[in-house]
Write a structure and sequence with these properties.
Helix content: 10-25%
Number of helices: 13
Mean pLDDT: 90
CATH class of the largest domain: Alpha Beta
Largest sheet: 8 strands, mixed
Protein name: Family S53 protease-like protein
Shape: globular
């Protein structure tokens, strides 16, 4: 199962309630929530001398221009395909206009507040203010709330205002109406292997195209090599880094990785490891009892499948204040690098209805920035079928986040080998925040035509469809805290597909070509015939059978699973 993040953050940009603070500026309500979210209780006004760290998102100068540039360098038919932008070129699209910086700075100065930039392009500012100052700045009353289940406290407000003359300059302020929901952290399915099971890597005849029957009940790197034609040849390009995201104190254990390689990839050096990058106070304890199931899975099925590709484990700590549990922090961290990874895989997610449109849009634009620089961003689609990132009660379908963002690649899950079928937990559907992007317009239209009136009224027929692709997600063998075990979830699928992309990048770079970058325009055009269509199964939820898999794209398995040889041809190798 995918480890899920759940947040409450509604956004009401159309409120037109005005007020006049002591400064004489006309204020307009910018964000408001109608009630305290479930599970929280108010304990009255926050102490006026308590210090808040607030983040101000400035309106970016040219997000439409950024999207146009991203599509130009990512679409195979474009004359600019593969000509990725530099750090400085991307920052020009997102840097706020000088008048926006001046207007917001002047407003803060009136209250004796100084801001500091906290993003590479300066579109995010940070301020430290007392509750009294924050109340005056945003014409609000910050209150202390407690989560009844966890006991966690948070200083938040149910609405805040900004000066009317800052509209078009100040995008939003965070955290204000964001309530920190406790992390919905359900462990991956973990089943110890029965005695006598022989790892497939020790069996003979795995160099043929035949997939051993045992792969139907136990997936290993050797199974993936046989099923998808993934080569065992070592990658050669040291610049071709594959990034693996780590969150919520999930630590990737080198000893577990060594056991995994010794047992399941004996042709690789058992000492093969990963480099570590940290932010927001992140660490990576090597105490084996503290190894994380998710982190072990993600590093073992990148290092163990993308043979020889350099892997960086990026550990995001608990000191996050971006509202999406470090999702934005890690992108800004990588955007600040001169050479970010060519691929980034993440096996965490949230329900879209728990994220505000403003914050969702800002994060999605950050993915566009990294994509324009040549990074392929992949996310697990979720494990709740049509009920969200995890199974839950619902009456209408719950899209996951960030899978609804059109500037990343969402990966669903399959199971079985003859042929593959959809895993029933594979999250998929249609975004309520983002419209259908041009690259998938025809495929989504074709699916909706075949779907007819099924599930009518339960989803947004004009939303971006997800997932985009899929890969194996059940009965996957890993080593965890010293023992062999099996796991399941789209958490397995994203690192597997990311490994395929990284191996293609290695060959492209060796041939003097550019890496693939943002994948979707390629996948929905030139790459379409290089994927194996998965046409059976569904993803139940919300007291329905969910969506059916069918010929062509579907919101269960996307366009299908990888065929490495065909993908090599499609990318021009």
């Amino acid at each position: 199962m995918m480890l899920a993040l759940s947040f409450f953050l509604p956004f009401l940009a159309t409120c037109l309630t005005y007020a006049t603070p002591l400064s004489g500026r006309s204020m307009i309500v910018h964000e408001r929530r109608e009630a305290i979210p479930g599970g929280f209780v108010s304990h009255g006004l926050a102490p006026k001398d308590a210090v808040l760290n607030l983040r101000l998102a400035l309106v970016q100068s040219d997000p439409a221009g950024l999207e146009e540039a991203l599509m130009a360098v990512s679409t195979p038919s474009s004359a600019l395909y593969g000509q990725f932008l530099s750090k400085e070129e991307v920052e020009k699209f997102v840097a706020p206009a000088p008048q926006s910086v001046a207007a917001v700075s002047a407003f803060l100065s009136e209250h004796g507040v100084t801001a500091k930039p906290i993003s590479p392009a300066g579109d995010w500012l940070s301020i430290d203010v007392t509750v009294a100052q924050a109340n005056a700045l945003f014409n609000t009353e910050f209150t202390t709330f407690t989560h009844t289940e966890t006991g966690a406290t948070a200083v938040r407000t149910l609405e805040y205002s900004i000066p009317a003359d800052l509209q078009g300059h100040l995008d939003f302020v965070h955290p204000t109406t964001t309530f920190p929901e406790s992390l919905n952290r359900q462990p991956l399915v973990s089943i110890p292997l029965p005695k006598g099971v022989v790892p497939l890597a020790t069996q003979a005849n795995l160099s043929t195209d035949a997939v051993p029957a045992s792969c139907a009940t136990l997936i290993t790197p050797a199974c993936l090599q046989a099923l998808y034609g993934i080569p065992t040849t070592r990658a050669t390009q040291t610049s071709n880094v594959l990034g693996v995201s780590g969150f919520i104190d999930q630590f990737a254990n080198q000893a577990d990785l060594k056991s995994f390689l010794t047992s399941l990839r004996p042709d690789l050096l058992s000492t093969t490891g990963f480099t570590l990058q940290t932010l927001d106070g992140g660490t990576n304890s090597q105490t084996r009892s503290q190894a994380g199931l998710e982190a072990d899975l993600d590093t073992q099925y990148t290092i163990g499948v993308a043979s020889g590709v350099p892997v960086a484990f990026v550990s995001v700590g608990d000191s996050t204040r971006d509202g999406v549990f470090g999702f934005l922090d890690i992108i800004n961290f990588l955007l600040a690098e001169s050479n970010p990874p060519h691929v980034l895989t993440t096996s965490y997610g949230a329900n879209e209805n728990g994220v505000s449109r403003a914050l969702a849009n800002n994060l999605c634009n950050a993915y566009a920035q990294l994509g324009a620089r040549g990074t392929s961003i992949l996310f697990s689609s979720g494990d709740g079928g049509v009920s969200g990132s995890q199974s839950g009660t619902c009456t209408t379908f719950v899209p996951t986040f960030p899978s609804g963002c059109p500037f990343m690649t969402s990966v669903g899950a399959t199971t079985g080998i003859s042929p593959e079928t959809s895993a029933t937990f594979s999250s998929g559907g249609f975004s309520n925040f983002f419209g259908i992007p041009s690259y998938q317009a025809s495929t989504v239209s074709a699916y909706l035509t075949k779907l007819g009136s099924t599930n009518s009224g339960k989803f947004n027929r004009t939303g971006r469809g997800f997932p985009d692709v899929s890969a194996q997600g059940e009965h996957v063998e890993i080593f965890f805290q010293g023992a062999s075990t099996t796991v399941a979830g789209t958490s397995c699928s994203s690192p597997i597909f990311a490994s395929v992309v990284s191996l293609l990048n290695d060959e492209l770079i060796a041939a003097g070509k550019s890496p693939l970058g943002f994948l979707n325009p390629f996948l929905y055009s030139t790459g379409l015939s290089a994927l194996t269509d998965v046409t059976t199964g569904n993803n139940p939820g919300c007291n329905t059978n969910g969506f059916p898999a069918t010929t062509g794209w579907d919101p269960v398995t996307g366009l299908g699973t990888p065929n490495f040889a065909a993908l090599r041809t499609a990318v021009g190798l």
